[in-house]
Amino acid sequence: MQELDALKQRIVEALPGLDCVIGWEPGPSPLTAAPLFMRTPADVDRLVWGPFNAPNTAVYLPAFKGRKVGVVVKGCDSRSVVELIQEKLVRREELVVFAMPCRGVADASKVAGRVGDLGQVSAAARDGATLQVTTPEGMAAMPWDEACADKCLNCQYPNALVSDHFLGDPLAPAQGRDAAADEMGRFEAMAPAERMAWWAQAMDRCIRCYACRNACPMCVCRDHCIAQTRDPHWVSQEDGVREKLMFQAIHALHLAGRCTECGECQRACPVDIPILALRRKLNRVVKDVFDYQAGVDPQAVPPLFTFQVEEAKINERGW
Amino acid sequence: MPVLAGRELRIVGFLCNWCSYGGADTAGVGRFTQPTDLRIIRVPCSGRIDPLFVVKALLGGADGVLVSGCHPRDCHYASGNFYARRRLEVLKGMLPVLGFEPGRFEYTWVSASEGQRWQQVVTRFTEQIHALGPSPARDILAPRRGLASGKGGDSARA
Ligand code: SF4
Ligand code: SF4
Ligand code: SF4
């Protein structure tokens, strides 16, 4: 792949001035990529780009604040970078952003739904509109739009929104199905108590590993997460769904107006709880009330960091 | 509670010290009759109200939560209620996804001199909550029986 070679070349050239460059290398299974921290040209050789580069590289950036680093991003990752810049959690001048147009990433859970145990997969490759997966039973082909992450079906930003080195020809926004809207529609069709029961059942599986939090590029409190304080005691050690839902509410509300819908929270969840729905709902509210989308404009102020004396779309006197 | 058992619901009110708490006090001093389901928690400013206070109350089984602060432009700290308004509006949009009927949470503004308005607000909100009835969270999210039931706070909850 010519573009990837050109990208590697640019990274090698930039390395001497950088602490490291964050990208991806092949992961433990053919369906995954793992984060790669490139410090030498030999590291750069291992860089991959393609349908398995799901992890959001931006998640590591706040930890490097104060040092100059490079980062390779997909379009959606770049939104997290923009949001981090907006919130002054990283400095634009300390970043060198490398990007290529993104054609989407696979959703391992969807693939597992089709082929079963992912541990049995020995090879996987995308061939245009299909994903070919090899298992001991032979080769299975899945239509790409049934194998890719929901967000990719109607991706509006396949080309990075910030970049210093962009290789390849920009892609047009995707025109596919809006899976998020479909999911929201299913939610809205339920009666309130039914919805609550649905959450109770889904969250019952939660093991409180907090992977959803740790994978989130905008969760930056690290060791100071209020979910773990004992004073005040926001969530107890009880194992009921109430505590688990409370944690989800904490995460979702702390991301209100900041979440870029990268989907990493849900992707990281080991028990596949559709927790993205909550974030999406909040994003929809933020869009309706403040006409705002997170991580698009580095100069913008996130809506909950500010206010207007006269709010255009809040009708608080309606009650 | 025993006298009114079965008639009262649990409503939590977060009231700012400078306006709405004063307004409720004014209503009391004026001897305006009010429903008594609401338990008031006094906070220094509506800007102090983390939307998570509301979520915590609702998940814990409150049947309704009411937030009341100073009218916009009247905040003792100049801008607390402006920030609160944005946060609470967003919260209002989120609660239904968790399965709470939209009417279980409202926020409004009552000044210290508005005893009459306080009476109306608390009456209307209480009626609204009674129309909705007890929160589904009480049953649906109740801690599982068995091991957990012996532990502390939750089983002690009346
Ligand atoms: S959402 Fe867009 S940029 Fe992100 S992985 Fe999917 S196609 Fe690529
Ligand atoms: S909450 Fe989820 S979707 Fe939103 S930024 Fe964090 S990881 Fe991404
Ligand atoms: S990643 Fe999943 S299981 Fe882990 S805490 Fe989050 S919701 Fe629960």
UniProtKB/TrEMBL annotation, chain A:
The keyword Hydrolase does not apply. The keyword Iron applies. It comes from the Bacteria. It holds the Pfam family Fer4_8. Keywords: Iron, Iron-sulfur, Metal-binding. GO terms for molecular function: iron-sulfur cluster binding; metal ion binding. Residues 250-279 form the 4Fe-4S ferredoxin-type domain. This is 4Fe-4S ferredoxin-type domain-containing protein.
UniProtKB/TrEMBL annotation, chain B:
GO terms for molecular function: iron-sulfur cluster binding; metal ion binding; oxidoreductase activity. Coiled coil: none annotated. The keyword Protein transport does not apply. Keywords: Iron, Iron-sulfur, Metal-binding, Oxidoreductase. Residues 11-133 form the F420-non-reducing hydrogenase iron-sulfur subunit D domain. The keyword Iron-sulfur applies. This is F420-non-reducing hydrogenase iron-sulfur subunit D domain-containing protein.
